[in-house]
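RECORD CONTENTS
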Amino acid sequence: MPGPGYELVGQEELKQVTDVVKSGHLFRYGKQDDPNFQAKVFTFERELAKRCNVNHSVAVTSGSAALIVALMAIGLNPGDEVIVPAYTFVATYSAIIFCGGIPVLTEIDASLNIDPNEIEKHIGPKTRVIMPVHMLGNACDMDSIMHIAKKHNLIVIEDACQANGGSYRGRALGTIGALGAFSLNIFKTITAGDGGAVITDDDDLYIRAFSFHDQGHLPNRTGVEVGARSILGLNFRMNEVTGALGLAQLRKLDSIIETLRIKKAKFKSQISGLPGISFRTLNDPEGDCATLCTIIFDDPQKAELIASKLKTNTLDKSGWHVYANMEHMNKWLQEHNLPYGKGAYPKTDDILSRALNLSVGVVDGGLGASFGINIHSTDEEIEKTGELVRKTCHAV
């Protein structure tokens, strides 16, 4: 069972996709005066932008593509350094590398997000971007990050791929920096199987992002603009079927987040007060996506034993979201004479060795979240799951 949106795919998605198939238009572009053209991608972009209260959105093929498009929109140059957390999905790093940049890994704090107190230690003459990642639906400390960025004249690109629907102090995640990136992968809050989006309030960045995602074309062409293309680009265009799925899911996002917050609150109440355990820091509790409930133990041995009894893993063993577990990334870091392998970021290692993800909406072994509840869990199931966590912790 992956993300909550995937679990709610139903008649709304079927209707949207059927509309596209019946129309005969699978390409994202079509003539606006053609009654058969459904414009699902265009509508998805407009509704996402409106929901986030920004001027622009560009639908793309994946969250990875969204990060690449955002980086190319700001004109990342070869050798530019991008400050990123040591706990994130590998795509955060690979997007930077394939744009010619250098990911500079940085310690996390008890929010499981980048530690603002560590950022300035890594700022150098080649630093161009700070890329905070709102891990597991929890907002980064954006006030501190934006203060640092302004002080050092750096650009902020928000990786909000795991946090669609979250907010920070009343602002949608992805809207606080220059650009934000979302994913529609099956493990995310809402899904189209795959897909993603870039959002921004900046007109020039929008034009550059749009152009890069569509072979240099200016926004919303109706044909091939020979001689009018602005920059070199690639093809990261979303098709109409994906747009249709994304649109149906986007219209469910608010209800998904509301449901998850209710269920998470009930779940947390079942396991609050256990000795030697704390919940991760939420930089804005009211804006949490509530897709996961993360508990942090005071002892790594206890955390590992409890995880084993619950048939799950501590976060340090949760796959490609942990820098030390990325064999291909560690090889790249080693080849470029950068810190690599377990021990390179000891604060991150320590926190992840003591942390356990309990699923609420996202059930993903790759996040170490193979135990917990889901969006369909009843109050009785939530209570039983909480009781099992309590009994296991007391037994250990």
Summary: DSSP finds 14 helices and twelve strands in the chain.
